């Protein structure tokens, strides 16, 4: 037992680079002309003709025919006239009707693309996330698609009946033009004629595409478009021997890096083979590996093959061979990959923080996979092969396996991992890799508690859970000699949805005239870890780190079945639960901590209460004095009311001592409001950033139950911080909610231990506490008994890094789900206004902050619980913004991008001034 006099008299309070403009200049073309100065006169005349022609636009192009002498081999007049023959112009009514129909058809085509994209997105969404979509959404989307297609058919019929010279007819005529005609047109209008937009194919068929397949880049020709929307591509495969082969693969459009159709139109596989043969034999320039030039693209979000070719070759329009050579360079570079948002182009691979550690991890996984193939060890023992150095990379793979989009995973090291291990770059492959090395992909059949969200767990942890549940005495209790049977009433106060209780409270205000005694019971998880860091529970906690809560449900640190088994609420006379109990004596008059004890206990009865029930009962007592007769209270009511009165005294003590719960991640109840500075436009010197008086915002409502728990657990944090600091024991601290293995500030860093079931850092600290309870007089620097500085630092670095990774992923998923809901609202409004192709969806919300100097404000969209930046403009005759903080406004949606999690809004109109209706957030 640890017994102390509390030492403190007070409580510790807690660019984008425009490359093409730089490199594409007329100088390069002048150089090219100089290099070709030895050409024949005819060639010079033709070149001069083309250069002179390029200076003219519109009607002047036709006038050139009257002043420029054609080459001697000009074509027969009868061959030119049909090409230049004027078409009969349609009437004004036909033109107007055609324009209206085309506009509507274009709107429908855009709508159709969106619906197809939504269907594809739904089909590719992992089953675990499909629950986030509205029920029957796919059927509604398919119905919507059918309606759009029917309307398209009707409009196209109208075009055929009313328009004599439609675009498709002209396209067919131009494509059927003979090569002789084309040569003639080149003479008249220059060599650029072949690259005009009219000659481009309308679909991807017979066009060259660069694409990613099984995490490698290839080039091929599109041969078919499948009903699923996938492209069937004849792929060119170049072997190391120099031989060529082709095969057919199906790819998603999102796998395409670049289409050649915009530059060269239709091509066939033989042309690619010929170019590759030329490339291999150096028949055209291949020496383009200029890292200095390519490095200029590192500031670009993404870049395409033609953009790189223009820079590397310093030309305005790269040739086929130059483009192919550039593709070969990009596709074989280890520093180039495809953008994660599935858009066209390439991007640089993000640098890896610790290449050596990543290589070691990959080497370890390869070894495990090889040993599994050789059947030299059981998969169930897989978890013992890993340590804290593997935690970060295993969590990257785990996040990828559950992510609806790859770019939601904040670290793209998984690309290297999967590629080196021979797996495709996909969520399914990440899931398969984890399964291949022994992590469970489904809950064992003999486990009654079902949870669809699985952590990094092996079968061994389920087997160990069974032993804890059915044969607990087989596991040695190292603290049994000092464990006390606790016989006072115990309650827990938690949200009703909580799975597993890991802290509980008792209070005694009658046994002493001097003290109010509060007992805090923390689940003794170390009870089940007699073998320390080699135990399956410690290993599992180290790999999963903490329970986190994305929108599709909680991912627990331990299997839910185990969490329920070890919950304090399972306590019975025959099967007690185990706890570490802190007994704190508070001075009755001042509520200051006077002393405390810490000892292991066994609990035989814990009454679980929800926060809503506790708050409701206390409010009933407080609001009706007739109900405040303590003599008529039941035992439960007496405990709650005593806790309430104690909490109020303790809050008064904190207020008088100017101490704060905010650094504990909790809210001070005596601060009833916060102050927000707001900027407003001023008249002096057109300054739009003159601060006004601050605006008061009410604190969010916090339940009485929550106040009680916050106050008591903060006292526990304070005491444990005091103990560990005084004895020089290492543990994990929180600094304004952020974990760290060092104490950053004496007033704002506190040690946490109260949630060992949900958080590895709490379990780590509890392990240190167990050593102190067993060896109260031992040297705390002894590495055999305590985690030392080196181990704590080594583990701490990986823990903090991985927790940050999971936090960023959680933010991305939350934003994705909220933006999905906003997108559904946008589509709903557009369907209601389908006759107006220029319609923009309108959203409503309250202004949280205003920055007039940058012409934007932050709006909170109440319906979606989402905040976003919004732009606005100020009329020239108006020097002030039409709104302030808390005003309700309407905004228009300019764009929404689920891939990049962005929402662009613009101010529409002011609704009402709500300064007196302060928004509680």
From TrEMBL:
Residues 98-161 form a coiled coil. GO terms for biological process: mRNA catabolic process. Residues 30-48 have a biased composition (Low complexity). Pfam families: RNB. This is RNB domain-containing protein. Residues 30-51 are annotated as: Disordered. It comes from Dictyostelium purpureum (Slime mold). InterPro entries: NA-bd_OB-fold, RNase_II/R. Keywords: Coiled coil. One of its GO terms (cellular component) is P-body. One of its GO terms (molecular function) is 3'-5'-RNA exonuclease activity. Residues 483-775 form the RNB domain.
